[in-house]
Description:
The chain is α+β, with helices and mostly antiparallel strands. The chain has a single domain (18-304), classed as Lipovitellin-phosvitin complex, beta-sheet shell regions, CATH 2.30.230. It has helices at residues 2-12, 94-100, 124-141, 148-157, 162-168, 171-176, 233-250, and strands spanning 21-22, 27-29, 39-52, 55-73, 77-89, 107-113, 118-121, 183-185, 189-196, 205-217, 222-231, 264-275, 280-291, 294-304. Helix 3 (124-141) runs antiparallel to helix 4. It is globular. It starts with a helix and ends with a strand.
Amino acid sequence: xxxxxxxxxxxxxxxxxxxxxxxxxSTVQVIGYWDMDEKQSxxxxxxxxxxxxxxxxxxxxxxxxVEITVVDSTENSYTIEWYYKNYTTNAQDxxxxxxxxxxxxxxxxxQTDEFGSFQMVTNWEEIRNYMADAxxxxxxEFESLPNIDKAxxxxxxxxxxxxxxxxxTINEIHQYYAFHGxxxxxxxxxxxxxxxxxxYGNEPFDCDLTYxxxxxxxxxxxxxxxxxxxxxxxQLTDATYEYLTQMVSSMNGQLPKREDFPLLTNETxxxxxxxxxxxxxxxxxxxxxxxxxxKQIIERIIExx
Length: 305
């Protein structure tokens, strides 16, 4: 892996050396030193694994590429385009195949601050309209399937507003810029309690967040950062139970009593290697959601190509 990283740096960053790393006091500040029209390409791999007890129930894998281009910069911000292409998936269900590839040839334009920390999606209306048209076409194509409208309506709802898009549909972008804008000391943990979006639409969840600078490589001008995110289990369980109650009620079903409903946990771990220019070299995020003997693992890898 170290040889691969060294080759990638040699090819992509041969003329770029910046002073984010301070060897004297073992600190690193993650800042985006990006030029107009500068571009990097990545392959993103996402794997979704569901486990019951000791058995793996399903294992879905998808891959796609993104071209990240700096399209504008000011003294206080960068405007960056993410262009999505070349989707592949091992999903056998035709509906899942279609949904997973909806973003083919789509552009997401974001704004960061001067350090490269994510601020907002700027073309959210374009994304909303693009996805609504695409999903309405799928509704017609698969109209014979029972309850398919509800499934598609739920997908549309995640693109219905700027807030919805930023909260639930650009996870790879949040992963990419998670460490930008902060100064870190080697081995020192930065901890805080923050609010994270509640995808069920109610109050946001409390979340324990921890960052750490894990490794400094001054010769290669890169550093490794880690992050842990743990969502409040009681709030998550309450919100999930309330949502499922509404879903089951609409289908004339029934849930167990609240006191018999299992406690849910949601933990996310991220490790990212960042070059001194602020471009990501490699990042892996692993999210685990658990309830009793059931577990869902979602892993996303972002790798420069």
